[in-house]
Amino acid sequence: MNLKIIRNKLFPTSTLGELWIDGIFFCYTLERPDTSVVNAQAPWSIPRGKYEVTPRWSAHNKMEVLGINHVPGRTDIEIHPANWPTQLLGCIAVGDNQSQDYVGDSRDTFAKLMAKIKDQTLMLEIV
Fold first, then answer.
1. Centroid of chain to Cα 99
2. Structural domain of residue 36, as residue ranges?
3. How many angstroms separate the CA atoms of 5 and 126, rounded?
4. For the chain, how many structural domains are there in total?
5. N or C, fewer C-beta in 10 Å, the chain?
6. What are the pLDDT digits (tens) for 48-77?
7. DSSP codes of every residue in 25-84
């Protein structure tokens, strides 16, 4: 299964995008600012590229999340529920609606994502 995040709105306080699964739009995404927009201190958005993704337990979020593996210079990077960039430590949040610095219905959208990808091998491309 191929996941693709297309970043389409870069703000000094957040990065907004869309998550596509096997070429079909699934939901919206929220990340910390992109370093190309602001001279961001960590945490910032994940560098563009391709990553292996695996479900795993998150001690920080106390739930099963999607771990994004081998992010250069970073550990414990995840896709998990959140609504605001301040709730992200360099990770990605998903939601079914978005506005600057926000994604909505994140917990429900994340639950639908986890149900959809169950037992799949996942690759994520961020562009």
1. 16
2. 2-126
3. 5
4. 1
5. C
6. 999 999 999 999 999 999 999 999 988 999
7. EEEEEEESPPTTTS-PPSS-PPPSEEEEEEEEEETTTTEEEEEE---TT--S-EE---SS
